[in-house]
């Protein structure tokens, strides 16, 4: 298990401990822990693997694959983070959400190379 924050978050999600990863993220960014559910809300017709509903602070994921996909979870957590930041109007763009997720994945890959994590 990685010791650093970003690699640890990715590792937890990859190992099916997505709720733990979200709790850790929420603690680190000082926001409430978002709810997490499998199954996208009704009317969600595009091919997204996940979505975030600010009204009930819920991250919804398409299926169990998406549940264990760090990119999907971190992308949606970014929307949660932006919604609950002081600057509520600015929820952050899709591009920024992707960038946020990518930074975690890169940190995980780097840690894996250094520590030969499995
Ligand atoms: Zn998004």
Explain this structure to me?
There is one protein chain. With 118 residues, this protein is mainly alpha-helical. The protein has helices at 5-14, 18-29, 64-67, 70-83, 94-115, and strands spanning 35-38, 50-53, 58-61. It has a 3-stranded mixed beta sheet with strand order 1-3-2. It starts with a helix and ends with a helix. The model has no long low-confidence stretch (mean pLDDT 89). Zinc ion (ZN) is lined by residues 75, 79, 94, 97. The site of zinc ion has 4 residues, from helix 4 and helix 5.
- Cα(first) to Cα(last) distance is 9 Å
Poorly predicted parts: none
Rounded to an integer in angstroms, the radius of gyration calculated over CA atoms is 14 Å
Indicate the structural class: mainly alpha
Strand order of the largest sheet: 1-3-2
β content, as a range? 5-15%
Helix content: 40-55%
Bound molecules: zinc ion
**Structural shape:** globular
Number of strands: 3
Main beta-sheet annotation: 3 strands, mixed
Order of helices and strands: HHEEEHHH
| Overall pLDDT | 89
Helix count, DSSP H or I runs of 4 or more residues: 5
């Amino acid at each position: 298990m990685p010791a650093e924050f970003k690699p640890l978050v990715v590792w937890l999600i990859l190992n099916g401990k997505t709720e733990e990863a979200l709790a850790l993220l929420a603690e680190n960014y000082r926001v409430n822990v978002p709810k997490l559910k499998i199954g996208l809300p009704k009317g969600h017709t595009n091919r997204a693997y996940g979505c975030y509903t600010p009204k009930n602070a819920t991250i919804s994921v398409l299926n169990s694959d998406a549940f264990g996909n760090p990119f999907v979870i971190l992308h949606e957590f970014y929307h949660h983070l932006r919604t609950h930041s002081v600057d509520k109007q600015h929820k952050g763009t899709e591009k920024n959400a992707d960038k946020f997720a990518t930074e975690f994945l890169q940190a995980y890959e780097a840690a894996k190379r250094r520590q030969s994590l499995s």
